[in-house]
Each structure stands twice: as structure tokens, then as C-alpha cells.
Design brief:
The complex is a heterodimer. Chain A is an all-beta fold. Chain A has no helices and nine strands. In chain A, a hairpin with a 6-residue loop joins β3 and β4 (45-50). The relative contact order of chain A is 0.35. The radius of gyration of chain B is 14 Å and the shape is globular. Classes of the chains: A mainly beta, B mainly beta.
Chain lengths: 111, 117
């Protein structure tokens, strides 16, 4: 079963920062937080992952709370192409640990 | 990032026939691949874990005799939907793990849309 809770949908204006929350209150000490997104009728795309420190890459930033029970994915300047379903997943980052998807957040970027 | 290719991207078959879907890791070797199924407006549901050179591990409720998985090489896993019925119509997605030990990343194929008529 998925170990994360996300709002089912969110809207954001184009050019604004999109902040997507995720609750993972039962996360274990060795579990990472992963974010993927799925644009309609395509396979999921990796965005970012982290353990306890905040992370940033060319796509997004990941802010993890100090107690690690929640996190926020930030798309700094959302574009229309960022419209997708965003999945937050917790996973042990070793070996062949499977990715179990929850329901995700359907993010709509409005012009 | 690494590339995972699925083929075909779209297939229509008659009820009662079998369909094979291929998943290839193009620029890396994948000991482990995963197969998912996704119905409209729903999330991805993990069907099975495919391990190179050994039997696949199926999730609870997934019929192993209906969804045959073969992982014959480090770059290819196949999913065969046997005796397909209209209720098997779905979007099938594979994922391959790149890396070993504490640094693995999952890459996904573009999906296969199966329609059984």
C-alpha cells in the first residue's frame, strides 16, 4: 500500500511557483521520498528524490520537514507543460525496492 | 537519464488471443523490471516484479498464468497477456531499475495501450 497522502488536485497560474504537498507520517529512517510525474498517456517521469536534506535540480526543489513526516515539491516557474499528475512515493533506496504509487495530485497550470 | 522503450505503444486484439508487450532498457542493464497496469483516471497498479533469470514475483490478486512475464536478458522483459478479454483493456507500463546497491533509480517506458475487442 502507498504510504503517502496527497491532495487530489491543485491549480496554479502559469509563471508562478507550484507547491505540491505530501504527507508521509509513517516514513522509516531509511526511506527516501521520491517524486514522479505522469503527463497524460505517458509513462511516469522522475523528478527528484531526497532523504532528509532539501534537494534541488533543474526541474524542481524538494523541501523535507525536519521530522520527515511531510515534504513539498516546488516547481519554481510553472509552465503549461507542467500540467500532469504528480506522485510522491517513499521507498527504501537500495536493492530492488518496488515503487508503489498512490493516487497523486493532478496539477493544472492555467494560462 | 536512462531510456526504457516499450513496444508496441498501442495494440488492438480480438478477445481470446494473446498479446506480447516488450520492455527494453536501451542504454543500461536492468536486473529488475516492474510491470504496472493503469485504468483510466486511476493510479498505476503494480502487477509484478520481473527478475532476470528467475521467476517473476506477482502482486496479490494478479493471475500469473494470465500475465506471463519473461526476463530472459538484462535488457529485455516481456509481458504476455494470454486469452485476452475486454476487461484486460488497459494501459500497461514497465519500469527498469538502473544502478546497484544504495543508488538505484527507476526509469519508465512510454506505456502500451491495449484494447481488446
Amino acid at each position: 500500500d502507498a504510504k503517502t497522502t496527497q491532495p487530489p488536485s491543485m491549480d496554479c497560474a502559469e509563471g508562478r511557483a507550484a507547491n505540491l504537498p505530501c504527507n508521509h507520517s509513517t516514513i522509516s529512517g531509511n526511506e527516501y521520498v521520491y517524486w514522479y510525474r505522469q503527463i497524460h498517456s505517458q509513462g511516469p517521469q522522475y523528478i527528484i528524490h531526497g532523504l532528509k536534506n532539501n534537494e534541488t535540480n533543474e526541474m524542481a526543489s524538494l523541501i523535507i520537514t525536519e521530522d520527515r513526516k511531510s515534504s513539498t515539491l516546488i516547481l519554481p516557474h510553472a509552465t503549461l507543460r507542467d500540467t500532469a499528475v504528480y506522485y510522491c512515493i517513499v521507498r527504501v533506496d537500495q536493492g530492488a525496492q518496488k515503487l508503489v504509487f498512490g493516487q497523486g495530485t493532478r496539477l493544472t497550470i492555467n494560462p | 537519464g536512462a531510456v526504457v522503450s516499450q513496444h508496441p505503444s498501442r495494440v488492438i486484439c480480438k478477445s481470446g488471443t494473446s498479446v506480447k508487450i516488450e520492455c527494453r532498457s536501451l542504454d543500461f542493464q536492468a536486473t529488475t523490471m516492474f510491470w504496472y497496469r493503469q485504468f483510466p483516471k486511476q493510479s498505476l497498479m503494480l502487477m509484478a516484479t520481473s527478475n532476470e533469470g528467475s521467476k517473476a514475483t506477482y502482486e496479490q490478486g494478479v493471475e500469473k498464468d494470465k500475465f506471463l512475464i519473461n526476463h530472459a536478458s538484462l535488457t529485455l522483459s516481456t509481458l504476455t497477456v494470454t486469452s485476452a478479454h475486454p476487461e484486460d483493456s488497459s494501459f500497461y507500463i514497465c519500469s527498469a531499475l538502473e544502478g546497484t546497491g544504495g543508488n538505484t533509480e527507476a526509469f519508465f517506458g512510454q506505456g502500451t495501450r491495449l484494447t481488446v475487442v
